[in-house]
Design a protein that fits this description.
Number of helices of chain C: 11
CATH superfamily of chain A: P-loop containing nucleotide triphosphate hydrolases
Pfam family, one (chain B): BPD_transp_1
Keywords (chain B): Cell inner membrane, Cell membrane, Membrane, Transmembrane, Transmembrane helix, Transport
Order of helices and strands of chain A: EEEHEEEEHEHHHEHEHEEHH
CATH architecture of chain A: 3-Layer(aba) Sandwich
Family (chain B): Belongs to the binding-protein-dependent transport system permease family. HisMQ subfamily.
Distance between the termini of chain C: 68 Å
InterPro entries (chain B): AA_ABC_transptr_permease_3TM, ABC_transp_permease_HisMQ, MetI-like, MetI-like_sf
CATH topology of chain A: Rossmann fold
Subcellular location (chain B): Cell inner membrane; Cell membrane
Number of domains of chain C: 1
Mean pLDDT of chain C: 89
Chains: A alpha/beta, B mainly alpha, C mainly alpha
Oligomer: heterotrimer
CATH class of chain A: Alpha Beta
Strand content of chain A: 25-35%
CATH class of chain C: Mainly Alpha
Largest interface: B-C, 40 and 42 residues
């Protein structure tokens, strides 16, 4: 796909991100940014830190060092005796509501119907009028192809339908950036395509997306940029043609040879 | 007099008195259950997230209250409370035995007893929460209070409902023990009737039937609530 | 602040109630167990009449307070004293101990029946089919397959039921029996030192509760060897 113009502003950026769990260093200085409208596929074997990277962007994990910037707002930090914490909880909530997250295991709220899942945050976090949220939610559900499931509970949907509902839930917040954390890894093979189709449509609309995935075809055909993570560092970063055509990193070559 | 006249609503009938006493039983149980919910939620919170001393305190509370007869707890509160109050009254120059309001003692006792059971129910339901759904709430920018109200509380309540139904049934039947303090609830009223008419079997049978009616209604109510709450479960 | 002499005297006085509490517990657990087996059998294998009777029994005794049941038997049956005397049963119903034992047995029997039924219903069908497939006769199948599997399923709930019987024996004090709670109530009324007496009496009950928990754990380990931790196997020299 045609990459967005390099003059467009950055929608999201991290600089020199470090994160460890106990003795295990998961991120060792990651710098990455996405311009508005850019689709970045993040590849890497399990344990490479790619999910942790996404979770640091909306602060589900707190990185020990480095900057996180969403739009023109950088997260403010406050030092603690051990490490640091975000200085302003309201800022964290504000930034999270601008970043849509789609999880591997969907994480729909099981006590609410599909429609209720979609309008929950717009009504209660963003405090928008309910009627408008419902109308918009119905349009979003139609867009992801499950308009007829609006009054179903998540447990009564297939995995693919649940994931599309979760995408509608993320879109309802009008996010500036969409984060996808292995969105098709928990799905039966025959359900993967329906979710990828929705994601491709979103990319074509010009949404800013960071996608952690194992779907090589998606990375090659839909993403503007491909990033390969290995042991907490970025080993490859470039347009898919360049990265897949002439990989510079030996590890990425091995990764491709193993089939991702 | 025949049993029917005795338990009827005419002259010399005890029907109205028994029904009023059944209402007292219900009020006692409801207040005790509410008090127990507050205590139980606090104890569950202490067990799950509190500092070590709080956790130990909550563990002692639930272990002791679930291992010691409820009657003993009622005696402790009734006599112990009166003694404590008498001591305080003594400082202000009052003398003699100070009686506590029996309804209050009953509510406190039932609350303390059922709180120990409700704590376990709440703890189990909280442990059964799906972490992913909480993470999704954080990811859309819900602050703690909103997440507690819109996601955690409804999910916990749904899982806890069957357990709470059991605790309620136990509590209803336990409320009969409060009759030892002299509070005129259902069993006490039956005792009074039995004493003054010398027809104990008739009165205790009537009381038993009323308890059975209340517990059956409760079973029905809880199973309806569970059906409602199970919406959305596979 | 702590009056050791008073505590010692209290413990000594309460000790006299221990045999009554334990006797009532053991007696009603045994009789209640037999009743429960009968009721569970009636519900599972007995045809409509035994099933209906067992249902009614469980419904009535689980739906009313134990204290009402005790009063009904001890005080209530006094209303029929002449007929009971004529039947030669008055000697039994005159005694608070036997009345308490009867009420406790009937009560715990109703709860235990449901626990037993649940345990039996939880036996996997496949295990029974497998038994039949290798030619086990009914009784052997019941004894070697059904019973052990049902018992381990029902054991935790049954342990809780035994503990609640221990606690329930305290209600015998309301019909003049001097078991632990009855003695404790007398001591409190005499001394007005509710907390000290409560702590001593509570300690007795907790001790019994812990013994029951220990027994249930031991029974669990015995019935469910597959749930024990794996024995550590020493690595063999190559």
């Amino acid at each position: 796909m045609l990459a967005p113009s390099p003059t467009r502003p950055e929608a999201v950026a991290v600089r020199d991100l470090h994160k460890h769990f106990g003795a295990l260093e998961v991120l060792r200085g990651i710098s990455l940014s996405a311009r508005e409208g850019e689709v970045v596929a993040i590849l890497g074997s399990s344990g490479s830190g790619k999910s942790t990277l996404l979770r640091c962007i909306n602060l589900l994990e707190v990185p020990e060092a480095g900057e996180v910037v969403v739009g023109d707002e950088a997260i403010l930090w406050r030092a603690r005796s051990r490490g640091r914490v975000p200085a302003d909880a309201a800022q964290v909530d504000r930034i999270r509501s601008r970043v849509g997250m789609v999880f591997q295991s969907f994480n729909l709220w099981s006590h609410r119907t599909v429609l209720e899942n979609v309008i929950e945050a717009p009504v209660h976090v963003q405090r928008r009028p309910r009627a408008a949220c419902v109308a918009e939610a119905e349009a979003l559900l139609a867009k992801v192809g499950i308009a007829d499931k609006r009054d179903h509970y998540p447990a009564h949907l297939s995995g693919g339908q649940q994931q599309r509902a979760a995408i509608a839930r993320a879109l309802a917040m009008h996010p500036r950036v969409l984060l996808f954390d292995e969105p098709t890894s928990a799905l039966d093979p025959e359900r993967v395509a329906e979710v990828l189709r929705v994601m491709r449509a979103l990319a074509e609309e010009g949404r800013t997306m960071l996608v952690v995935t194992h779907e090589m075809a998606f990375a090659r055909d839909v993403a503007h940029r491909v990033v390969f993570l290995h042991e907490g560092r970025i080993e490859e970063d470039g347009p898919p043609d360049a990265v897949f055509g002439a990989p510079r990193s030996e590890r990425f070559r091995q990764f491709l040879a193993r089939g991702g | 007099m025949s049993a029917l006249t005795l338990l009827g609503f005419g002259a010399g009938g005890w029907g109205a008195a028994l029904l009023a006493a059944a209402a007292t039983t219900l009020a006692l149980a409801l207040c005790g259950f509410a008090a127990g919910a507050v205590l139980g939620a606090a104890a569950a919170a202490a067990k799950l997230s509190g500092a070590a001393p709080l956790r130990a305190l909550a563990d002692v509370y639930t272990t002791v209250l679930r291992g010691v007869p409820d009657l003993l707890v009622i005696y402790l509160l009734y006599f112990g409370g009166s003694t404590a109050l008498g001591t305080v009254a003594g400082w202000f120059g009052a003398t003699g035995f100070v009686g506590l309001p029996a309804f209050g003692v009953g509510v406190a006792a039932l609350g303390i007893i059922s709180g120990a059971y409700q704590a376990e129910v709440f703890r189990g339901a909280t442990l059964a929460l799906d972490r992913g759904q909480l993470e999704a709430a954080r990811a859309v920018g819900m602050h703690r209070g909103l997440m507690l109200r819109r996601v955690v509380a409804p999910l916990v309540a749904r899982t806890a409902l069957p357990g709470l139904g059991n605790v309620w049934q136990i509590l209803l039947k336990d409320s009969a023990l409060v009759s030892v303090t002299g509070l005129v609830e259902l069993l006490r009223q039956a005792q009074v009737g039995a004493g003054s008419t010398r027809q104990p079997f008739t009165f205790y049978l009537a009381a038993g039937a009323l308890y059975l009616a209340i517990t059956s209604l409760s079973t029905w109510g809880f199973s309806r609530a569970e059906t409602r709450a199970r919406r959305g479960l596979p | 602040m702590i009056d050791l002499d008073f505590l010692a005297a209290t413990v000594r006085a309460l000790l006299a109630g221990v045999p009554v509490t334990l006797g009532l517990t053991a007696g009603s657990v045994a009789c209640g167990g037999a009743l429960a087996a009968l009721a569970a059998f009636g519900r599972l294998a007995g045809g409509p009449v035994p099933d209906g009777l067992a249902r009614l029994y469980v419904f009535v005794f689980r739906g009313t307070p134990l204290l009402v049941q005790i009063f009904l038997i001890y005080y209530g049956l006094g209303q029929f004293r002449p007929s009971l005397q004529a039947m030669g049963l008055w000697g039994f119903f005159r005694e608070p101990y036997w009345c308490a034992l009867l009420a406790l047995s009937l009560n715990t029997g109703a709860y235990t029946a449901e626990i037993l039924r649940g345990g039996i219903l939880a036996v996997p069908h496949g295990a029974l089919v497998a038994g039949r497939a290798c030619g086990m006769p009914r009784l052997l199948l019941f004894r070697r397959v059904m019973l052990p599997l049902a018992a381990r399923q029902a054991l935790p709930a049954y342990g809780n039921e035994v503990i609640s019987v221990v606690k329930a024996t305290s209600l015998a004090s309301t019909i003049t029996l001097l078991e632990i709670t009855g003695i404790a109530q007398k001591l409190i009324a005499q001394s007005f030192r509710a907390l000290e007496v409560f702590l001593c009496a509570g300690a007795f009950y907790l001790a019994v509760t812990f013994v029951v928990i220990g027994l249930v754990r031991a029974a669990e380990a015995w019935l469910a060897p597959d749930l024990r931790p794996r024995p550590a196997v020493a690595p063999r020299a190559a």
